[in-house]
């Protein structure tokens, strides 16, 4: 028996990296099918190696977390890439990504790209945005599309961790990965064809080894809805609300119509940015108006 990590899944095969021994092509035991367990890229596993050098996944260790799209597990952090221009910065979309990441208890890192494409006034606005998110407690990195050396700022975040990259199309995810790992040659504007759909007929997920860590090469979140989040959990996805919830009169306060709410008071005083609170209300309404699933 050997212990390792699934770093790639393709056509029913799982490629397991065993430290100091290499990567083994494995199949899953039929047992997993009976238990309705699908091995995921990122799983810590035990494998039984056969005489011909292939193997079987015999055990999957408990996951810290898992994502549905992309289907990966045991993620340490999500690098959320958002551009200052082309496409324009979209705070609503950024907050949507942040909520999805927070709900999975994954550490987010915000990367603002294409800073060289904005006017001086817009640059000041982006600096203000950076301060807002840093005050909430998020790490924020600003990058220029012209200065490829700037991307080295991300190395300390990636080192030794397992990361996914999230962000809408065109914000520079592929360029970022290509700059971090020269020779990778991911197509610009076409990163993994949204989980392999498109010109590639095979769907597969793969980890790229990078700076003693891994980055998933399927960074697109193909779904940005909140179907896995219930209304009671939403405030927990806003760190600035978590910090103040003990000051609310009612336990389990949703910070909406309840009186003596510390969060609403903080919005009034400007301690919580109004746009963040408005996004919260928008997401809350979306979750509460969702049709029940049976």
From TrEMBL:
It holds the Pfam family RsgA_GTPase. Monomer. Associates with 30S ribosomal subunit, binds 16S rRNA. Its main location: cytoplasm. Keywords: Cytoplasm, GTP-binding, Hydrolase, Metal-binding, Nucleotide-binding, Ribosome biogenesis, RNA-binding, rRNA-binding, Zinc. PANTHER family: SMALL RIBOSOMAL SUBUNIT BIOGENESIS GTPASE RSGA (PTHR32120), SMALL RIBOSOMAL SUBUNIT BIOGENESIS GTPASE RSGA 1, MITOCHONDRIAL-RELATED (PTHR32120:SF11). It is found in: Cytoplasm. Belongs to the TRAFAC class YlqF/YawG GTPase family. RsgA subfamily. It is an enzyme of class 3 (hydrolase). Transmembrane segments: none annotated. This is Small ribosomal subunit biogenesis GTPase RsgA. Zn(2+) binds at residues 248, 253, 255, 261. GTP binds at residues 113-116, 167-175. Residues 73-222 form the EngC GTPase domain. Binds 1 zinc ion per subunit. CDD domains: S1_YloQ_GTPase (cd04466), YjeQ_EngC (cd01854). The keyword Phosphoprotein does not apply. One of several proteins that assist in the late maturation steps of the functional core of the 30S ribosomal subunit. Helps release RbfA from mature subunits. May play a role in the assembly of ribosomal proteins into the subunit. Circularly permuted GTPase that catalyzes slow GTP hydrolysis, GTPase activity is stimulated by the 30S ribosomal subunit. Residues 64-224 form the CP-type G domain. It comes from Salinibacillus aidingensis. Its cofactor is Zn(2+). Its EC number is 3.6.1.-. The keyword Hydrolase applies. It comes from the Bacteria.
